[in-house]
Amino acid sequence: MTAPGTETGTNSALRPGAALAALAGAQFTVVLSTSIVNVALPAVRDGVGLSDSGMSWVVNAYGLAFGALLLPGGRVADLLGGVLTERLGWPWVFHALAPAPR
């Protein structure tokens, strides 16, 4: 009797390097998105007229919204599958990136 997932002839070999790469990629994405917000702060400050404390609120609100939506998004992907979740999510991304009407 063998342990589950250790049968010979199957493609179920454990790859600890793949898990590390996935976690490192996810962490890189989080750091990159937060860095983008910090780079955009001067333009936001000039456009909206924020004070220093207002800029701090922008960074903290972004981090809070990112974290608050990350866990439910992962749960939705677990329930619906990654491909369907991605197909449902791209229209929202394009809508968010669309230029504002003038």
Keywords:
mainly alpha; 102 residues; single chain; 0% strand; 3 helices
Notes on the structure:
The chain has 102 residues and is mostly helical. It has one domain. It is built from 3 helices and no strands. The chain is elongated.
Per-chain topology:
Layout: H1 16-48, H2 52-80, H3 82-97
Helix pairs in contact: 1-2, 2-3
In short:
The protein has 102 residues and is an all-alpha fold. The protein contains three helices and no strands.
Could you tell me the number of beta strands?
0
Which ranges are low-confidence, i.e. pLDDT below 50, for 5 or more consecutive residues?
Answer: none
Query: Which shape, going by the Cα principal axes?
Result: elongated
Broad structural category: mainly alpha
Order of helical and strand elements? HHH
Q: What distance lies between the first and last C-alpha atoms, to the nearest angstrom?
A: 69 Å
Major sheet, described briefly? none
Rg, rounded, reads 20 Å
Proportion in helices:
over 70%
Question: Domains counted in the coordinates: how many?
Answer: 1
- What fraction of the residues are assigned to beta strands by DSSP? under 5%
Q: How many individual helices? A: 3
On the 0-100 scale, what is the average pLDDT? 84
